[in-house]
Design goal:
Layout: H1 3-6, E1 16-19, H2 25-36, E2 40-45, H3 49-58, E3 63-67, H4 75-87, E4 92-95, H5 111-138, E5 143-147, H6 151-154, H7 161-181, E6 187-193, H8 199-204, H9 207-214, H10 229-236, H11 238-241, E7 248-251
Parallel strand pairs: 1-2, 1-4, 2-3, 4-5, 5-6, 6-7
Length: 258
């Protein structure tokens, strides 16, 4: 059990939460974090079915799974509705699904690559939130927590300009929807991870590049996925964050101090 799983946040118990992109990396740790609090969690996954089933088996009484490609129009709506049906409603939505889909310099980006990056990282967040809105409005103290990125502020590393731009969209969406939804009792916030050791970097960041990037972190190391979870739980808790909306918590070891 991680340190964060040992912490008890009573008002998260029995809350019904959908975590998109919840089978690996930060998403998997978010699922573990909420399940350890006693929440009912819908774990969304796309291709990582084996990892999703293994994670579900860790918390069989608290976690259900739903599959879908969030980059396809209509799938985020379907995923939200299936999750709400399995959980009997939704109290919270964690928009965590995303990915770089390759490092491609701006001048070499093909139109279909641009479309896929924005569909997965931006449009899916918009669609999932719109689909979840009626459930969150009907719930008491509904919440949305989006996963953005340090790239939204610094433009991203080499070949990651589109990903950074899409995450900037998520950050702006967070602030705008926080103002739109506040009258409905829904808080909207975001967590912005920095350099975190996840399958994302395993796939797209060479070891020497990762080492060079970690050297720019004041804490002197790459972060762990579980070190992001506390920020998500904090923002989800009305007891601790009930007067917080439209905010973005940076989790980056001091790499960026806005």
């Amino acid at each position: 059990m991680s340190d964060i799983q040992a912490v008890r946040i009573p008002d998260l118990m029995s809350r019904r939460v959908l975590v998109t992109g919840g089978s690996t990396g930060i998403g998997a740790e978010i699922v573990r974090g909420f399940a350890a609090q006693g929440a009912k969690v819908a774990l969304h996954y796309n291709e990582s079915g084996e990892a999703a089933r293994a994670l579900q088996a860790e918390f069989p009484e608290h976690v259900v799974a739903v599959q879908g490609d969030m980059s396809e129009t209509g799938t985020p709506t379907k995923v939200v509705r299936e999750a709400a049906q399995m959980l009997g409603g939704l109290d919270g939505l964690i928009n965590n699904a995303g990915g770089m889909l390759g490092r491609v310099p701006t001048t070499e980006v093909a139109p279909d690559h641009l479309d896929r990056v924005f569909a997965l990282n931006g449009k899916s967040v918009w669609e999932a939130t719109v689909a979840a809105y009626p459930y969150l409005k009907a719930a008491e103290n509904g919440f949305v927590v989006n996963t953005t990125s340090i790239a939204a502020r610094n433009g991203g590393g080499g070949g990651a300009v589109l990903y950074a731009a899409a995450k900037s969209f998520v950050s702006s969406l967070t602030r705008g929807q926080a103002k739109e939804f506040v009258a409905d009792g829904i808080r909207v916030n975001a967590v912005s991870p920095g350099l975190i050791q996840t399958p994302f970097h395993d796939r797209y960041t060479p070891p020497d590049v990762l080492a060079a990037q970690s050297a720019t972190v004041p804490m002197g190391r790459v972060g762990r996925p579980d070190e992001c979870v506390g920020a998500f739980l904090f923002l989800a808790s009305n007891a601790m964050a009930g007067y917080i909306t439209g905010q973005i918590i940076e989790v980056n070891g001091g790499q960026l101090m806005p």
